[in-house]
Amino acid sequence: MKTALITGATSGIGKATAEKLAEKKYNLILTGRRKERLEEISRTISNRYGVNVLPLCFDVRDCDEVKKQIDHLPEDQKNIDVLVNNAGLAVGLTPIQSGIIDDWERMIDTNIKGLLYMTRAVSPLMIERGMGHIVNIGSIAGRDVYPGGNVYCATKYAVDALTKSMRIDLLPYGIRVSQIAPGQAETEFSVVRFKGDEEKAENVYRGFEPLTAEDIADAIVYVCEAPPHVNITDLLIMPTAQASINMIYRK
Ligand code: NDP
Ligand code: 8X3
Fold it and tell me: Which residues line ligand 1 (CB under 6 A)?
């Protein structure tokens, strides 16, 4: 049985990926900051699919905590076959000249530094075993920019660059590195971006059919289940109604 560690499994893409990998009989290590939700999701998945699910509650922005959590994993759960670097967020949609510094820090610390801390802690375990697969969740926002997207886009451009670099650095150790880059997917993403304003969040998806978290999870499972000699390096997945980052056909 394989083991997958998924960051940000308390909602959206991470949660859906946990379900779909459990369906394929992966044991799971799930992370997130919302403890109760994380524990509830872990229990439900474990009962439903009969797999081991270990909830680890921590903030990926805390480098020492990330290291401690991975170092202290029970020996039989250090065999991480798949790391899904999914935890991430956009905060605000403010032009650069009036940008809120705290919002910038949250995005940079989570989307770039959190992904780096997780990779730094887990990749040596993969190297020891001469196998592993790291799946980074990028975005269409890492391919093009939009008004007010500035820092969020920059973090996803960074994920794109890091994915390519990690693939080179980890090449001698048989570790696959892939990126999944979604377009608009309806999750808690926009509620977080608009700091709890549900109406603004709903407007993002008004008049067209966005992707679901499950659509992206299906792609992640496909990438993870490819034969060991096959690495699907990069998947850009868009809603049919979205032609480019700025072009959505709304009815
Ligand atoms: P959600 O808001 O639904 O999920 C985000 C997850 O990340 C939550 O589980 C949250 O858990 C976790 N998270 C956020 N910050 C931290 C942190 N500091 N430490 C630990 N966990 C954290 O959004 P999505 O599922 O949509 O987002 C998942 C990824 O997909 C993100 O990287 C996002 O940028 C990317 N993406 C999303 C798109 C979309 O349209 N939805 C499109 C393209 C990419 P908790 O709050 O419990 O910590
Ligand atoms: C999320 C998609 O277009 O809101 O990465 O930035 S977008």
Answer: 7-14, 32-34, 59-61, 86-89, 110, 114, 137, 139, 182, 184-185, 187-189, 192, 213
